[in-house]
Design a protein that fits this description.
Blueprint lengths: L6 E4 L3 H13 L7 E3 L2 H10 L4 E5 L8 H11 L3 E5 L4 H8 L5 E4 L4 H16 L3 E6 L2 E6 L5 E5 L2 E5 L4 E4 L3 H7 L13
Parallel strand pairs: 1-2, 1-3, 3-4, 4-5
Antiparallel strand pairs: 6-7, 8-9, 9-10
Length: 190
Amino acid sequence: MKEGKKILIIEDEIIIAENMKLMIGELEGYSLPDIACSTDEAIEVLKNNRPDLILLDIRLGEGKNGIDFSDTLNEMEIPFLFVTSHGDSTTVSHAISKAPLGYIIKPVNDQMMRSQLQLAFSKLQLIQYYSFREGHHDIRIPEKEILFLRSDKIYTELHTKDMRYVIRKSTKNILDELESEMIQTHRSYF
């Protein structure tokens, strides 16, 4: 299996999902995507894997629809593209209010898939993230949300507005990994 950017497809029509998976499999720089047929399945996948991008159908069978589920993705800070056969102005304006990286109208072809993925990942490069592993979960935090770091020997506390993470890594190593520059305000605080 190719290594690369991880994508999750959330699509209730398995033939369409498998077709998108094949298209992405032909492209360089992407690993073969996972597929979830409902938002409940997607939640299970997200417990153990954090994709770099989600392709999200708007009209899903049972459970939440894609537009409602996008609120969950925004809370989890997982970027997504809507993929749908609905291009009416009401659906489009409601979907756009959820801040997707893009909106793809079905049927999807190879060229459209390639260009939309490239566009989405180029937008994501403008946002700087700090990623680390906490237990069995991958955590990715926009660097602009990091309020401060507190050094404690081989551990570092990373503080955001809502959360405090304890990372088993020296503060020096974390500072080297961050794109943003942080200023030392005290012997243990950055």
